[in-house]
Design brief:
By secondary structure, the protein is an all-alpha fold. The protein folds into 2 domains: 378 residues, no CATH class; 81 residues, Tetratricopeptide repeat domain (Serine Threonine Protein Phosphatase 5, Tetratricopeptide repeat). It has 23 helices and no strands. Helix 1 packs parallel to helix 17, helix 9 packs antiparallel against helix 10 and helix 22 packs antiparallel against helix 23. The longest helix is centred in the first third of the chain and has 27 residues. The chain starts with 7 loop residues before the first helix and ends with a helix.
Length: 485
Amino acid sequence: MSNGHKGWPVIIALGLIAATLLVYSQAGRFDFINFDDDAYVYANAPVRAGLTRAGVLWAFFTIDYFYWQPLTWLSHMLDCELFGLNAGRHHLTSVLFHVMNSLLVFFVFRRMTGAVWRSAMLAALFALHPLRVESVAWIAERKDVLSGFWFLAMLWAYARYTERPSNGRYGLVLGAMLMGLMAKPMLVTAPFLLLLLDYWPLRRVAIAEKAPMLMMAAVSVVLTALGTRQVRAVHAVGIPAGLRLSNAVVSYARYIGKTLWPRDLAILYPYPASIPAWEVWGAVLLLAAVTAAAFWLGRSHRYLPAGWLWFVVGLLPTIGLMQVGRQALADRFTYIPLMGFFAAVVWGAAALVGRHPRASAAGAGIVLAACGMVSWNQARTWRDSVTVFEHALAVTRDNSLAHHDLAVALEARGQRDAAIGHYAEAVRIEPGYFIAHYNYGSALLARGQTAEAAAQFRAAVYYRPDYQDARRRLEELRLSAAPRE
């Protein structure tokens, strides 16, 4: 099996397609979930209408729901145009993008490094690792696989540009980056990742050419800041800076742990009320040790510092220094950053055991088979809202959002008594969770417990004074209780 055999890239590509579909084709039977899928698709009027002139304008001129992401909105609109609200078809679109991304990882790194089998292993890890499941199996995370596609298209264009620079080829790099930013602003780190590729494997120095990319990234940051404030998505105001910094450091360590041993994966990891000092200092020592080792060994193995810094820098926008959302960390945030980590691991492993091809092949097969099986099982938990949040509660603690959204799903199935127990647990864990108070009150009211329902509506108003739905319910209860003349 010669490394240069012309037929192997095609065989590898077919294997990547088959393995990825084997894990994720089951998503064609999955439903929407009630966390973000509503806002992105089934309860979003412009998206549900499909590709319309008004919808396209809305996609480009709205920064609602966290980001300026017109390409993501258009992607969902096209799905609605083609498939209506058939959730399985929406899922399969995301699967298709992940298949294409896995192929691009292989062909891009093969082109840049010339290493067929190492690039194949990198692509297979990217395709099958369990941390990929959230991005692929969650319809609302279409922006991950879509931005990932354009990021990898940018890398392909960049590889061609470095081989024979020209204005046209550079324009393709900028165009692909722009498309990626229009899918998700995670690509603001792209100029820095290209600098790392310049260091390894391209071995070139070209800083000035990154200036237009940095300007594009800066505009994306401003638009993201406006969008997150518009929907009150930035939670940093209520979280002390020290806790955010501690969580960021610990999250890096947790991402490494979940990469090497992917267990207890969940749709949401609750933000901690506090973090023990030993945990923070342990994470600091781990990160310092890995960084020191990467740079020490990097004198003769450039892929180690390049891959490690790709991972660190790639996570910076979502590591939580400026908190957006309710999560302490999230599997989906690793979609692009783990490419660098995997590259360092794969090239490093090849350097250690490359002289034993049979043992290397056997080890790689075992790792990929394990990843595929775990990913297949993890993907099954995304069948619907009940399964995804039951799983989250099984593997996390004090998860108020999981209790709340499971309650909403159970109530939709007519299981109100079971739902009420989860609503109660959600507000016990997080007393200020005003939406949970409101839905808890609505469930109690439907069961005829008027006084208890009123108490929950009052709590919702206490924690969110401008919550008009809760105020209206209280007024309705007041009027219904008033004596009639």
